[in-house]
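User: Last request for today: this protein with citrulline, please.
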Amino acid sequence: MKNSKKFTNAIVRVPASNMIEGITTSLEGQPDHDLALLQHQSYVEALKRCGLDVAILDPLEDYPDSVFVEDVAICTSKCAVITNPGADSRNAETAFIEPALSAAFSNIEHIKEPGTLDGGDIMMVGDHFFIGLSARTNRAGAEELIRILSTYGYSVSIIEIEGLLHLKTGIAYLEDNIMLMHENLADHPEFASYTKIIVPPEEEYAANAIRVNDFVLFPSGYPVTAEKLRRTGLKLIELPMSEFRKLDGGLSCLSLRW
Ligand code: CIR
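Assistant: Here's the final one, the structure of the complex with citrulline:
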C-alpha cells in the first residue's frame, strides 16, 4: 500500500508519577504508573520501528496529563502551533513543549485567549485540516487556527462533535484516503469522499489509531477493527494502551509527529 505522508520525527513525554491525578471520565480505575512506563516504552519502540527519530522529554511532575503531548501543539510541514488547552489543569503544559519544538521549527505560532484549542481536536489530511469543536476547543480557537493555517496555504473544515473528548477520539486518518471512524460520524458530509472503516460500538476506543509511514499503530484488544484494517492491506503494530485509556487517552495523544 502506498503512503502519501512520510514522517521523520516525533516528540513524546515520559508519564509523570502522579498520572493517577489526571483528568478522566473512565470507570476503569487508576492507572498503574509502572505499567504505563512499560506501555510508553513499547510506544516509543514502535515509533522508532516506523523510522522516526523520537525525542523523549522528561516527565512533568506538576502536570498529571502531560504525557498526552498531542494536545499542546500541532506540527505541520510548514509550521508548529502551540495550542491553548481548554482544561485549566493542562493549560500551562504548553510552556514545556515550545523549547522542544523550537529546535525543529523556525515558524512557531500560538493560539491565544479567548481561543482555546487542544491538538486532539485537529486532524491533518494532507494539506487539509479538520478542526473538532469540543468542550476543549471553542470557536474562537478554531478561528485563530484557521487564520494561522490559511497563511501557510492550508485549508480547513470545522466539525462539531458531541459525546467525544476530542475529534480524534472518534476518527483517524490512516492516509491513502482511508478514515477509521465511529459509526455516528460516517454520514458526515465532510467525510463523504473517503474510504470508511467503521469501528463497532463495542470497540469504540480503537478509532484512535495512527498511521506512521508503513504501519498503523493500533491498540491491542480490538480484534474486529484490527481485522478490518488488515483486510484493507494495512500493516498493524498493536500496542497495549490500558493505562492511558484509564485517563481517556489514545494512541495519537502520546506523540507529536511530523
Ligand atoms: C485529558 O482529559 O486531557 C487527558 N486525560 C486525556 C487527553 C487525551 N488526549 C487526546 O485525546 N488528544
